[in-house]
Amino acid sequence: ITVVKVGGAIVEDKERLSQLLKDFTAIEGKKILVHGGGRRATKVAEALGIESKMLNGRRITDADMLEVVTMVYGGLVNKNVVAMLQSNGINALGLTGADMDVIRSHKRPVRNGLDFGYAGDVDHVNGFELRNIIEQGITPVMAPLTHDGCGNILNTNADTIAAETAKALARFYEVTLIYSFEKKGVLSNPDDDNSVIPVITRNDFNKYVADGTIAGGMLPKLENAFAAVDKGVKQVIITLANAIDGKHGTIIK
Ligand code: ADP
User: Using a 6 Å CB cutoff, which residues line ligand 1?
Assistant: First the structure.
């Protein structure tokens, strides 16, 4: 089974998204798509007069922003992706973590004075339920929203959703996890788009973090990637959005 995560910049760009979904359609076998949408949420919030607050590159989800991300991720982005996949002949089913109770989380506690608001840290992915869906020939399309089991939706990082989903399915399937985004892979020189690191180990990662080569959104992405490899996900690849055939990008070892 292949789990593909689509980065925020691709979701924003109708043409690139459409191409990515064609490539996704071409992947053989069972598959799951996980999408972000942070940039779109920021735009819609702005139109509503709601300020986007960030902390260490991550969103602070206050009560107003939680309503925005629920609408944008669970509605606008998710349903458009589902419709586009249907037009490709894929029987897609859009899901948040609350739907069929597929992903439970808890509100991230305030740590060292850092308060991310209604951000959910994943506790459990219901791999059985996801398998039941997939085995019917349905392709889940997952929005980066989870629930706490007490009636509350929580905003959850899409990279984390992809990794946790891949980990839960690794009990049943050989899983390939692909993070697609706007660069060709993890770069050894962030200013040189062609400096793709073909294979990266935990040791390399620590070294690149220490010298500042790897930073920003790539940090949690790689943390999630290594966690997936450690938990039995067969293959994790970070690659360009129009190179998700498993033959390009950076392999996480
Ligand atoms: P997504 O597009 O999946 O939402 P993020 O924006 O969270 O991803 O993280 C990817 C970003 O990480 C890239 O757009 C890039 O700006 C940044 N980045 C930092 N260091 C690197 C690196 N060494 N190689 C590639 N990208 C890097």
Answer: 7-9, 36, 181-183, 186-187, 190, 213-218, 221
